[in-house]
Amino acid sequence: MIDKKLLSEIPALKPGELDDDQINQYEQMLISFIESFPLNEHKIKAALEAKDKEALAAQLETLSAALEKIHAVDLASQVCEFIKILKNFDYENEKIEAFVSGFLGSAVMLSLDIQMAKYMDKNAQAKYMRKKMESASVKNISEKSILAVDDAAIFLTMLKRNLQEWPFKLTCVNSGESALHYLKENDPDLFILDIEMPKMNGYELAAKIRESGHEAPIIFLTGNSAKDYVIKAVKAGASDFVVKPINKENLAEKINKHLYLKNA
To answer: What is the DSSP string of 111-129?
Structure first.
């Protein structure tokens, strides 16, 4: 069953009020969406790479219809408007690639959000919510801290730039080993972990974080929305995802959600 509370927190979905029968039907539509999305995404990318305007429009229409069924109306509307003007774009025009890239990032994020509502362990969710409320009542914003781990220096630089206006403490390290060393004397309020790292990947690091007693939420960085991938992340301790390349607004939304920064 999809957790209704988590489902209600997904900003891209606007299903309105649903009774029990409707929510069961809606859940089936959501499951159909997340299971079919990886193939739809692959077809859109293939059409984009082949510079096949007709195939691209057709695949975008298919995904738009799927988004309408699950009441992701804003995303569906964006696609419809783009399809109308697609025929006027030269394929050398970078606007096509920019739109498709941005749209797919939003669609991947939606798929991940739905899967977290379905697959996240309910006991872990309850424990996390208690931890969040305790943190909200004890610490102010400037006392909160984030540990970010990524082996790519360029990503850490971009992360710092995107978060430079925020008042909390951001610590960045480039390996799992460095993160574990930092955690010997520090207890962050939030973790942001890349998954694909050498020597110790994000899954392995998350497991060690939990083994060492740290309970703060873990946000994984990814671009993969496949079901098996998500379930593996949840088992490793994931509380959420942020899609690469990072969208500043989406990053802010996720941090706000997990650090409870209502007055940020």
So the answer is: HHHHHHHHHS-HHHHHHHH
